[in-house]
Design a protein that fits this description.
There is one protein chain. By secondary structure, this protein is α+β, with helices and mostly antiparallel strands. The chain has three domains: 12-205, Four Helix Bundle (Hemerythrin (Met), subunit A) (Up-down Bundle); 212-257; 260-445, 2-Layer Sandwich (Heat Shock Protein 90). Helices cover 54% and strands 10% of the residues. The protein is built from 16 helices and seven strands. It has helices at residues 12-16, 26-30, 41-71, 76-95, 99-116, 124-148, 162-174, 190-205, 212-230, 239-256, 262-280, 300-318, 322-327, 360-369, 381-387, 409-418, and strands at residues 259-261, 284-289, 294-296, 334-343, 346-353, 422-428, 432-440. A hairpin with a 3-residue loop joins strand 6 (422-428) and strand 7.
């Protein structure tokens, strides 16, 4: 069990210098919310890079905790994870003189303190406000990372925090002061808090940046060494066998650095489905299976973008509105699912929904309208499904916040093919649709 007084997961070098002299009060910091941030890329590049890596890990824990809190507002464990995560984020931002970010995370910490003390309850406006702040922080980290990579170096970063700051202050002011309500008491139980908090800490401390180019170079070198050793003349004393065995072990260790559980990718999709569900006005839950299946981290970004689109597509086009589902004898809450497993040397990721399925008649009608096919063409079901991968194709009658512009499935297929994979569709009208993504695995990943 971690010591509650232990240092937060950001490096001790950062926190050793975040004393009282660095901790400007929230009121003073609020004056700088509208002042753009100019990064010190010469002096602080290494610290900024470390800050981004560790902060992204923190925000993954934050999103998971917020969604858990939305499902069960009386659960105290996610509140503690949120409080510690924003406190840690605030410490790093304060040291690096990122005043607007420091102010925003200080406000979040203050709001969560009112929840921890029992002075306010968790409601939907609070959930939405925390997620809005997370989006600002994610966008900020993205801009910092871009500048660190040489894109837009030195350009001022404007943090859209004034409105959020005021909204957070209103929540803080609305909470009764300690002692005003004798019935208030801290939320939850200490054991549950410590358990979830320790999970968050271990996840942050276990993540390190890895240079893919250096790993690839090392793996290539291992191949050259192995070939050189095995090509030598006979070895009566068996010394080379031991060397080769050690090299094989090192080879496997290097490869293992490239593999992460698919669960890390699946967890980020919870927020995607949650937001899509809210925008579409349909209650939808996400179910995942096979999260222990290993994923090459070099594919993580590409597959993440593909899954994001497929899930949004499933919520917007596939899942019916509750009244329609009820008339069809379905549960009013729709379901989308993701699963991962290894089949015949391939990583297979499936995205499935229990919605209306794909209407082949509607696809044919729209394809004819767009001049993609002739009314006299006779297509198989597979060939009809292939039409939805055409650039610009969409069966939507209007553009929504989620889809309808004809941009998406063609990009999904293109991205999957770039990493040597493929995508297939299996659908049944009235029952739902399944997309199957298959990506070949290197020998060490099987």
């Amino acid at each position: 069990m971690p010591d509650s007084n232990a240092a937060d997961p950001l490096s001790s070098e950062l926190h050793a210098m975040t004393g009282d002299a660095k901790q400007v009060g929230a009121q003073d910091l609020s004056q700088s919310l509208d002042i753009p941030i100019v990064l010190s890329l010469i002096d602080d590049a290494e610290l900024l890079a470390q800050f981004c890596v560790e902060s992204r890990a923190l925000l993954e824990d934050v999103e998971s905790a917020v969604l858990a809190l939305e499902r069960d507002p009386r659960n105290s464990a996610p509140v503690e994870v949120l409080f510690r995560s924003f406190h840690t984020f605030k410490g790093g931002a304060g040291f690096l003189r990122l005043d607007p970010i420091h102010c925003l995370t200080h406000d979040l910490e203050s709001v969560l303190e009112t929840v921890r003390s029992g002075r306010r309850s968790v409601d939907q406006p609070l959930i939405e406000l925390i997620l809005a702040c997370v989006d600002v922080l994610v966008a900020f980290l993205g801009e910092v990372e871009s500048q660190l990579s040489g894109v837009g170096s030195g350009r001022p970063i404007t943090v859209v925090g004034r409105t959020l700051h005021q909204s957070l202050l209103q929540l803080i002011d609305a909470a009764p002061s300690p002692g005003e309500d004798d019935n208030t008491s801290p939320r939850g139980t200490e054991p549950a808090v410590r358990n979830l908090d320790s999970i968050a800490i271990s996840r942050v401390s276990d993540q390190i940046p890895v240079s893919f180019s250096r790993l690839d170079e090392a793996l290539g070198l291992m191949v050259e060494i192995r070939e050189a050793l095995t090509a030598r003349p006979s070895d009566p004393e068996g010394r080379l066998a031991g060397v080769v065995g050690r090299i094989e072990k090192l080879d496997g260790l290097l490869h293992s650095l490239l593999w992460v559980p698919t669960e890390q990718l699946f967890q980020r999709m919870q927020r995607v489905v949650r937001d899509a569900s809210v925008k579409a006005g349909k209650p939808v839950r996400l179910v995942t299976r096979g999260g222990e299946t290993l994923l090459d981290r070099r594919w993580e970004t590409v597959l993440g973008e593909c899954l994001m689109h497929l899930l949004r597509n499933g919520v917007d086009h596939g899942i019916e509105h509750p009244s329609i589902r009820c008339d069809r004898g379905k549960a009013t809450v729709g379901e989308v699912s993701m699963s991962a497993e290894v089949r015949s040397g391939h990583l297979c990721v499936e995205v499935k929904d229990d919605g209306a399925g794909i209407s082949t008649a509607k696809i044919l009608k729209r394809a004819i309208q767009k001049g993609m096919i002739s009314p006299d063409d006779c297509l198989s079901t597979h060939e009809i499904y292939e039409l939805i991968f055409r650039p610009g194709f969409s069966t939507s009658d209007s553009v929504t916040a989620l889809s309808g512009r004809g941009v998406g499935l063609d990009v999904v297929r293109s991205n999957v093919q770039k990493i040597g994979g493929s995508i297939q569709i299996d659908s049944e009208e009235g029952r739902g649709t399944r997309f199957i993504l298959q990506v070949p695995l290197p020998p060490s990943g099987q």
